[in-house]
Amino acid sequence: MQHQPAATSREPDLSGRTLGGYRLLTCLGSGGMADVYVAEQASLQRRVAVKVLRTATLAHAEAIDRFAQEARAAAALVHGNIVQIHEVGCSDGVHFLAEEFVAGPTLRVWLKERGPLGPAAVLSVLMQVASALDRAATAGVVHRDIKPENLLVTPRGEVKVADFGLARVLHDNLELTQTGMALGTPLYMSPEQSRGGSVDIRSDLYSLGATAYHLVAGQPPYRGTTGVAVALAHAKEPLTPLLTLQPDFPAAVADVIERLLAKEPEDRFQTPADLLEELDQLAASQGMSPRATGLPLAWSADSEFGKSYSFERLVTAGGSQRRGGPPTVAVAEATARLKGALDREEIDRMVARRVWAVTAALAAFGFGMGFLLGRARGFRSRVVRGPRPSDGSAS
User: Fold this and answer.
1) Residue 249 to residues 218, 255, 361, Cα–Cα distance (Å)
2) For 18-343, CATH number?
3) Whose CB among 65, 162, 340, 393 lies 3.0–4.6 Å from 178's, allowing a Cys bridge?
4) Contact 242/216 with Cβ under 8 angstroms?
């Protein structure tokens, strides 16, 4: 495949175009890897979300291949709490992914508009996401990017996890990682993931704990001026107890969240099934039933909050965003690139400082040991030989 240059401006609007069997209605937003459209699937007459790969992604053939592989693996994860992938394909050179359309807010938006969650609501989030992670664990799939922005809430209060497996595409491509993941993601990233080490489902459990902490406290567990600073805080700094920020929150629920945030994977819940078992017992002891029909996060489509997520409102907002206003996507991308460059420079400086410090310490240690050994040998030589005789002869 011929590589194409990375985009330097906003992607062209494909609204009105048909890709495969999907007619793109309007663009809802853009990410580091794809533009997201709401579309209509003609064969089933249903609305779907279609992610169209951005030009920067198309410049890397390996990213496209990995995108298809991860999408197919994620499509096998059929579960009520996972955004279902319908198809991954290419039409007239445009690579796309069609998935379930969820007309509802992300938990990031929920937190901003409705404030922190109570105990029953956060237990419901924990249970539903843990159930999705349990399904993924049986298939050997790690999400790698659990965060409020990837958790969608339906009117019934169901929480659905989006972008399963696709974070790996960004993670394995340096340029896409810097432009697409530099902003926000380190707020919920496990210590082992921030170090670039191998990760398993326990990393997703850590990210779920960081997300739950944010939803309860109204702020993430660790913050910093750069992504590097946040990542180092996850690895090194002690966690502020949740009850310090929310004194009236049930201690037993806070304990579960804080156990998820243990810095060592061995100290967390080892599987989502272990977490679910603990949550079931906790809900029973607290007199809560977050798995009941009336889920705590249910919302009405007729309410003022719900009307902002109506299909008509989404289409209108999406269209006006594309037709006018400041080029927010381009600004976000430029900011992300700058932040990524600064983070890389900081990492390089940290590594250089540590290498220099270790080298200097070893050199000083070697010099000191050599000096001491030299003096010790001289001392032992003088003791064994005794004082040298005088050069003068006796009279």
Assistant:
1) 13, 11, 48
2) 1.10.510.10
3) 340
4) yes
Beta bridge partners of 22: 19, 41
Which pTM was predicted?
Answer: 0.75
Q: State pLDDT tens for residues 301-353.
A: 888 777 777 666 666 555 544 433 333 333 333 334 334 443 444 444 454 45
Q: Where are the domains of the chain?
A: 18-343
Cβ-based neighbour number of residue 115 at 10 Å: 10
Read off the pLDDT of residues 365-384 as tens digits, 9 standing for 90 and up. Answer: 555 555 555 655 554 555 45
126-144: b (≥16 Cβ within 10 Å) or e? bbbbbbbbbbbbeeebbbb
Q: Which of 134, 145, 163, 343 is catalytic?
A: 145
Q: How many CB atoms lie within 10 A of CB 217?
A: 20
Mark whether 348 is an active-site residue: no
Amino acid at 97: L
- Looking at the chain, how many residues does it have? 395
Q: Which of 141, 117, 37, 135 is nearest to 80 (CA)?
A: 135
